[in-house]
Amino acid sequence: MPQQSQQPQQSRHPWRSSAGEPWEYDLHVPNDPRAVTVCRRTLRLILTLHGLIGLVDTAELLAAELVSNAVRHTEGPATLRVRWADGVLWIGAWDTDPEPPRFPAESADLGDGEDGRGLVLVRACSRGWGWRPAAGSGSRGKYVWCELATA
Q: Measured between alpha carbons, how far is 88 from 128 in angstroms, rounded to an integer?
């Protein structure tokens, strides 16, 4: 009887995606300061399960700043969106305020106040950032995003 050669099976965890597979998560949160902690912890879990532990600390900081701004400066709910594709992690927050984010002037002294520091951190720690009005018919608000690359 001929013997069949057995090729070793690659072990693949069903919860871990490979670097080439894009994915996206949306987390809808109420206008509540505790939502920032929920978003940070959820983001940490998502990135860990996708094998992106090296991005967790910076991604948590950026997500916390974006969601904090969305909760602090609006009266409605917010959404944290996390997307991975082509070696880039996009983190964004949607909120109900259509006004563009206010970035402090380059020469502005931030002093002891907290206003403006979030976007300064986002700009300093990300590869790029921006904002756009919410898309779609009947949509309101804006989407503020930033990106991190693995390399």
A: 11
Alpha-carbon gap, residue 60 to 139, rounded angstroms: 27
Contacts of 93 (CB under 8 A, 6+ apart): 63, 66, 67, 69, 70, 78, 79, 80, 81, 143, 144, 145
Place of tokens 């987390």: 27
Mean pLDDT, the chain cut into blocks of 10 residues (151 residues total): 48 47 96 96 97 96 95 93 96 94 60 66 92 79 93 63
Tell me if residue 133 falls in helix, strand or coil. Answer: strand
- 58 Cβ neighbours under 8 A, 6+ residues apart: 125, 126, 148
**Which residue from 149, 148, 145, 151 is spatially nearest to 66, judged by alpha carbons?**
145
